Amino acid sequence: MDELELLKKDWKKNEDTKYPKLSYKEIYGMILKKSSSIVKWIFIISILEFAFWTLISFAFKNTEYNKRFESYHAENIMIPFLILGYIILGYFFYKFYMNYRTISATDSAKILMENILKTRRTVKQYVGFNLIYLALSAFIALGVQFDRDEEMISLVEKASANGEIFKFYAVTIILTLVFLGLLIAIILGFYYLIYGILLKRLNRNYRELKKLEV
Amino acid sequence: MNKELEHSFVEELEKNQNIVHKVCRIYTNNQEAHNDLFQEITIQLWKAYPKFRGDSKFSTWMYRVGLNTAITLYRKRKRSIKTETFDAFQYKIKSEPYDDTEEEQLKLLYKAVHQLNDIEKALVFLYLEDKSYKEISETIGISEVNARVKMNRVKTKLRTILNP
Predict the structure, then answer these.
(1) pTM of the predicted protein model
(2) Complex ipTM more than 0.90, yes or no
(3) Which listed CATH number (1.10.1740.10, 2.60.40.290, 1.20.1250.20, 3.40.50.2300) goes with B1-91?
(4) Can you tell me which residues the record assigns to a coiled coil (chain B) (predicted)?
(5) Closest CA to B113 of B98, B128, B102, B101
(6) Beta carbons of B43 and A28 less than 8 Å apart
(7) All structural domains of chain B with their residue ranges
(8) Plot region of B98 (φ>0 → left; ψ -120 to 50 → alpha; else → beta)
(9) B139 and chain A: CB distance < 8 Å anywhere?
């Protein structure tokens, strides 16, 4: 006999008696408990990410560096840049929320997985945006400093008097790049780890379904 | 209103709880994991219940949410320690006398099913539940042809696991 037929025969046998019977009360108790689903975890982590990047921008507000930066009077560059940042944050948050709302356990397995991965992708794009934003701000800030910071200007003059102006620019830019690169690598590594663990099973199952379509 | 909803839901689930137990049986292999998955499926069913419109049967709807939870949504609550293997975990399969070879073969079969991946388990489960290929394909989200092809592959895979 076909293996599965044998299994089916056994599967159907004594269906009414072989499984535990939970009472009304026990089931009622269960619906009061909290879910520990993957969607909930993605939601929590995403909210933390949004909070993290918002906090970072606030944390910079009162630093020495920021005060010094204000003395350059570069508001005409920084304020539009800041506003753009908030608009984009708003857009991502809206998109994330809409994606999150479409997740429904009553869809087919494939659609459900796709919708979960979509919320994940939105947050990934948000993180990507933040990293680009971070790099851009660093370079704009550097440009403003070259232009308006007195200490910097005197350093530039000194270097140019020594005939080392090119070296000076190169070293400053390379140092900034290295610092940014390290920071970005750490942040990306962290995300990779969290989502790698969290989404391992989902990604595997989604790939398996995808494979069926070819 | 909410109380009413709770009441009708719990009553329906109590009546149809075997479906959830069966999903747990396919996807878990010890008592603790079974209970944990049962709990999560119950929560997911309850969360989705307000959207249950009754255009399909409650039981049909349960298959979908149950499998989705097992395949995609579920994350283990605790690190489950594998204390009991599936063989020891009794579903009272021995309530009728089997001949030894058949019983032995069944044990191996259940063990083999547990070695399948999550999607393959879903296919086997729906097959054991006598679902049509149309329903299987709609639940999983693949075409009917692909469901058939995959089902045949699963059968072959099971055979290979059993007779290496």
Answers:
(1) 0.81
(2) no
(3) 1.10.1740.10
(4) none
(5) B128
(6) no
(7) 1-91, 94-164
(8) beta
(9) yes
